[in-house]
Amino acid sequence: MRTSSERILTTHTGSLPRPAGLDRHDPEAVRAAVQTTVRQQLAAGVDSVNDGEVSKPSYATYVTERLSGFEGEPVPLDMRGFDVFPEFAQRTFGDPDLAAVMANPSCNGPVAYVDPTEVQADIANLQAAAGDAGEVFMSAASPGVIEMFMPNRHYSSTEAYIAALADAMKTEYDAIASAGLVLQLDCPDLACAWAIGPEPTLPEFRRVVTQRLEALDHATRDIPPEQMRLHLCWGNYEGPHHTDIPLADIIDLVLAARPAAISFEAANPRHAHEWKLFEDVKLPDGKVVIPGVLDSKTNYIEHPELVAERLLRYADLVGRENVIAGSDCGFATFAGFVPIDPRITWAKLAAMSEGARLASQQLWATSSVP
User: Fold this and answer.
1) What is the model's pTM?
2) 70: Cβ–Cβ under 8 A, 6 or more apart, which residues?
3) Which domains are seen in the chain, by residue range?
């Protein structure tokens, strides 16, 4: 994985707007969409690019097309915190189109990776589109986020279910890494699962996070840490988020996991202040942070000077070489549910690149920055 040795590099979290009317079951259409998506990222100045997840119905639930064991009745997410805002909850989650997107099957049988052809097609499409584009990454669902969206109705315990998912997903993780791509592990459950179901105590939730990260470390044991990055978030939806767990309560556990880079929300109004925790938290050797400098839930285009300001804060605390600019989360985490206008997405990415250039000018003031 490239690091910011000469200037602040840029990337994003994964999902990007899919072309209108894309039939993801049409291989030629998907291949063309990946080509277009990579080209648009490069035009926006993004350094580490991906396929935009255009072939997937969502960043997590796509695994039902690759794994066995998911034919159970859907179980809706029991999200806390909306009871005090019932009108907002109905307006947001009462949308039948969104409800259909979120109706995911539960696990009702043994989990196994049965169809590697789709990940191989994704890899081939991305490599063909990227050419010599520099760094290329590919996202994959973590065992924990699969469990969060598609709960266990088969295994004797959640722990056994997550262990089975880790063993199964190892096939996909290894395939991505073996192709020479950077593997991004999508782990929003590490933070947002705090607000799902009965409220746990902090020690209880930290044990849950530890168990999920241990499963992830086991599944990626054959992949070098520097070839992996981990993304966590509090749920990529516009809402009050007043019940979110503070990053400070879990950051030590996350930094102890194997992936060398940690991507997290740092731009939205609920978590933008948390850069301050790195005044007290020492970044371990070999670790890199990818703070979100773009809010993925608003159509505002961030000013490049604001992006630069956010990057400079992190660089001052953890070192310029340990910071990569990113987005809070994906811009189209579910196909058909796109809260950000596609053209605005590309403009936001361009603003991030310009902001990274401005920050780099200050951080490398004695040398010229392209």
Assistant:
1) 0.95
2) 63, 64, 105, 106, 107, 108, 109, 111, 150
3) 9-363 (3.20.20.210)
